[in-house]
Every structure is written in structure tokens, then in C-alpha cells.
Amino acid sequence: MGQVASADDNAAMESFFALLQKNVLDRRRWTTRAELRIAVITWIERTYHRRRRQQRLGRLTPIEYEAIMTTQVALAA
What we know:
Layout: H1 7-25, H2 33-51, H3 62-76
């Protein structure tokens, strides 16, 4: 990521913004920018990051990875 005019970067960002618009922006009319800001941050932190498969976690979601690691730590103790 990070190269100028990279088609892969554009595709990833277009996908992210489409999900953001569908799941947050278009859900209701926002009265203040602060209210919208909190809704966007909440959606990113609670939904997008936790349910999206992460390359660095071996294509697992953070929730799946945490469950595996918790089980392994418990078995090791």
C-alpha cells in the first residue's frame, strides 16, 4: 500500500468507503458532525476491524485469532 496511482490501493479504499457509506452514512440523517464522527469511529473499531480478515493474522478475523490464542495459552498453562 502507499504507491501513487496503485489500482490495488484504489480498489481497497473504494471497497472500504462503500461499506462505510452503506453501514453508517446512509442509515439515518445525522444532526451534527460530532455525532457522525462518533458513529464512524465506532463502526470502524467495533465492526470493520474485528470482523475483517487480516493478512498478518493468517487470514483470520481478530475475533477468531483471539479465540485460538486464548485456547492455546490456557492449554499451555
